[in-house]
From TrEMBL:
Transmembrane parts of this sequence: 40-73, 93-113
Chief location of this protein within or outside the cell: membrane
Keywords: Membrane, Transmembrane, Transmembrane helix
Membrane topology reported for the UniProt record: Multi-pass membrane protein
PANTHER family: HVA22-LIKE PROTEINS
UniProt-listed Pfam families: TB2_DP1_HVA22 (PF03134)
Cellular localization per UniProt: Membrane
Gene Ontology CC terms, in alphabetical order: membrane
Family: Belongs to the DP1 family.
Protein's name in the database: TB2/DP1, HVA22 family protein
Length: 176
């Protein structure tokens, strides 16, 4: 049990850092009633949750959730003006464009899914590369692959898209 202490401490720190997400109070109650560490219940809960995801939708559902949950959360924070830098809104918009492009390619060419071994695990790795803050892969893929092909279709050149004349910033509605 002593060898597990550092790991239990890390899980406890994570649970304490995100109390509403990890049901911290319920875990404390279980720890008090049973004498077992909160970390044990949390890890078992995560394993059961992963088991349910795989039982319901398999690896495809898992890879879709990897590509959706964290990016959707960060996009929501960017939209709501939370503790997200201004550049993050652009990062998440770029992520969603690239993610949709990847999903479109996947559904248009289904033979990729059937012929590439471990496709969904590879997709998980690609998606994590796209949204991870250290790699910001979505910006790399967007600027090198998507933008050069999409921009000429949209505006007929490789220049930047210009706003339509007469468009102006939407005014915020005032509460009456």
């Amino acid at each position: 049990m002593d060898k597990l202490e550092p790991y239990i401490k890390k899980v406890d720190d994570f649970i304490a850092q995100y109390p509403s997400l990890t049901f911290y109070e319920k875990l404390k109650e279980l720890e008090t009633k049973t004498g077992q560490p909160k970390a044990l219940f949390f890890v078992v809960g995560v394993i059961v949750l992963f088991g349910l995801v795989f039982a319901i939708g398999g690896i495809k559902l898992f890879s879709d959730l990897v590509g959706f949950i964290y990016p959707a959360y960060m996009s929501f924070k960017a939209l709501e003006g939370g503790k997200v830098a201004d550049g993050d809104a652009t990062q998440w918009m770029t992520y969603w464009i690239v993610f949709c492009f990847l999903t479109l390619v996947e559904s248009t060419f289904p033979f990729i899914v059937t012929h590439v071994k471990f496709y969904y695990l590879i997709k998980c790795g690609i998606v994590i590369y796209l949204f991870h803050p250290k790699t910001v892969g979505a910006e790399v893929i967007y600027s090198s692959v998507v933008r050069p092909h999409l921009l000429p279709l949209i505006c007929g050149s490789t220049s930047t898209v210009k706003p339509v004349e007469g468009d102006k910033e939407p005014e915020a509605k005032k509460d009456e």
